């Protein structure tokens, strides 16, 4: 695998000089993880961060009782563990490969050196962290204030806007319904009931992982609790 080419294609490193990218390519590692394999466990001590080169990674937190809440689903080019790059801390969540994934590991020391020379990297990191904060606040609001059907409607709308603008009302989930229930803070049974009701009401058509929005207005009203 051409590590330099992989780094050049990552949005996080846009704006960095070729000399810096070449130096960075000599200090990073790329590892391959199989589906279900833990990349970093909660409380692992790390001073580095990671970027998904290929595949899909889930970040999640688990309670003492064993209940799991999915925080993010990360795909190609997306970084994680940025908060541990500048100091040694417990990793704040579990990172697990949902698909076979190639993961770039970047030492915190290398990041610190680059930031001193290339402020563009720091700005890129701040943009990522700002977007993650907004997503976290939306997740907290959804879990605290919305019922399962509202959470599901909001998730479908956001997914359709973010990933499927060119496909009209059709979206194809990259995860199972069980994984989706973890994102929504629900159970698979409650999710199935919500999908079935929305389908019976003519809001959606569901065929496995493919969801077609039949009534956008009704879906938006449901997401808003109307």
Radius of gyration: 19 Å
Largest sheet: 4 strands, antiparallel
Largest beta sheet: what is the strand line-up? 1-10-4-7
Strand content bin:
15-25%
Oligomer: single chain
Based on helices, strands and strand pairing, what is the structural class? Answer: alpha+beta
Which CATH first-tier class of the largest domain would you pick?
Mainly Beta
Number of strands: 13
Number of helix segments?
Answer: 8
Shape: elongated
Distance between the termini: 51 Å
The name of the CATH architecture of the largest domain is: Sandwich
Write a structural description.
The protein is an alpha+beta fold. The chain folds into two domains: 3-136, Jelly Rolls (Sandwich); 146-223, Winged helix-like DNA-binding domain superfamily/Winged helix DNA-binding domain (Arc Repressor Mutant, subunit A), CATH 1.10.10. 42% of the residues lie in helices and 25% in strands. The protein has helices at residues 3-8, 18-25, 108-117, 119-145, 148-163, 177-183, 188-200, 216-223, and strands spanning 29-33, 38-40, 45-46, 48-54, 57-62, 68-74, 79-80, 89-90, 94-97, 101-107, 170-172, 204-207, 210-213. The strands form four sheets. Strands 1-10-4-7 form a four-stranded antiparallel sheet. α6 crosses α7 (188-200). The longest helix has 27 residues, at 119-145. The protein is elongated and about 60 Å long. It starts with a helix and ends with a helix. The model has no long low-confidence stretch (mean pLDDT 88).
């Amino acid at each position: 695998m051409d590590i330099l080419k992989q780094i050049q294609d990552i949005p996080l490193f846009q704006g960095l000089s070729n000399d810096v990218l070449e130096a960075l390519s000599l200090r990073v590692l790329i590892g391959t993880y199989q589906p279900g394999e833990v990349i970093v466990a909660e409380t692992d001590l790390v001073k580095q961060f990671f970027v998904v080169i290929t595949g899909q990674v889930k970040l999640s937190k688990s309670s003492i009782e064993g209940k799991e809440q999915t925080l993010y689903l990360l795909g190609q080019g997306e970084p994680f563990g940025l908060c541990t790059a500048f100091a040694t801390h417990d990793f704040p969540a579990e990172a697990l490969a949902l698909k076979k994934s190639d993961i770039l590991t970047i030492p915190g020391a290398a990041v610190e050196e680059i930031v001193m020379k290339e402020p563009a990297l720091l700005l890129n990191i701040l943009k990522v962290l700002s977007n993650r904060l907004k997503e976290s606040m939306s997740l907290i609001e959804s879990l605290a204030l919305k019922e399962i059907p509202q959470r599901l409607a909001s998730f479908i709308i956001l997914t359709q806007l973010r990933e499927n603008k060119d496909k009209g009302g059709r979206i194809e989930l990259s995860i199972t319904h069980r994984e989706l229930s973890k994102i929504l803070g629900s159970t698979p049974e409650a999710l199935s009931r919500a999908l079935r009701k929305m389908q019976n009401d003519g809001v959606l058509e569901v065929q496995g992982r493919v969801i077609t929005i039949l009534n956008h207005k009704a879906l938006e009203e449901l997401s808003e609790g109307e």
